[in-house]
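Subject: sequence -> structure tokens, single chain

Hey, anyone have a minute? Need the predicted structure for the following. Not urgent.
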Amino acid sequence: MRIIIASWFLIFVALAPNAFAADTGPCKGGINGSCWNNQSFDGKVNLIAGFLQGQRAENMQAGLAGRSYRNIWEEDYYSLPSETTFGDVLDYIDKLYSFPINREIEFYKAMLLAGIYLKDDDSNDRMQLLKLFREGKNLPTDGKIMKIKAANIVRISSKQGDFDVLLPRVTLEGVSNEKQATAMNLIRFLTENLGWGSDCSKGPASIGLSYPLDLFSEDGLLRAEVRMYGAYICKNGKSIRINAFAGRDEINLSTLLLDNGFVKFDAKNDPKWPSNKNFSMALPYSRDNGTRFIANEPVYGLVKYILKDTSF
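Reply:
Had a minute. Here:
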């Protein structure tokens, strides 16, 4: 974390190691606004410090396990500006929990809102997220595709509810209606015929969602990468392993559509975004993720396999 907060944490632990222990009573049912509002100043600082230490431990565990939570296409939503103090975080959460409507929001969600607020780079994300949290929901990270609304918009169903998801960094501007229709049929085919069994059991295929740029579009749609998972593609009653086309059992939908000309790269940047979000590359996706084989294999490409002799 940042130097100022790290220094505060070390001083606080040295001077008040038991500050939070005496204040845990109201938090037995979970750490939310009711818990927070019953804490002393020391107890609130200890909550923040404990959360930040947990974040560091989680990042270390990810690294040890060979996973990374951060790369050029991922936003660290919990990160704070380098000048941030505990007082800055505490003041925001105090204000958030001063409203009764917000007091059921869990503390880890309040910290996410604080990170977005203190960076001051996306008020749209923060307000849309606050609305979602007030409803007792969370951002979906998995689910099923239930409807293809456009070549770059899908309706997904998740434990958090149903959402329209806009693929990030791609646009339909300049793409013919014919190509858009083919793209929608391609997504529909994958949704219905991608699965884990070799017996051609139907979908819908399972998906994962991640949020590399921001969380919501200005129209209130989720803006997320959609990764489709499955081991087999079924066509005309015959199943074939998906890794015959890709390096792993995963399809990045944006990459698949972009590399096959069904959508175009969207170079527009939100003026609220910091400079590290303003990408100017010709293509927005890493070629290092296994899905490159889907588009680049000239003979056995997945799209060519699906479209050949397929009647939509």
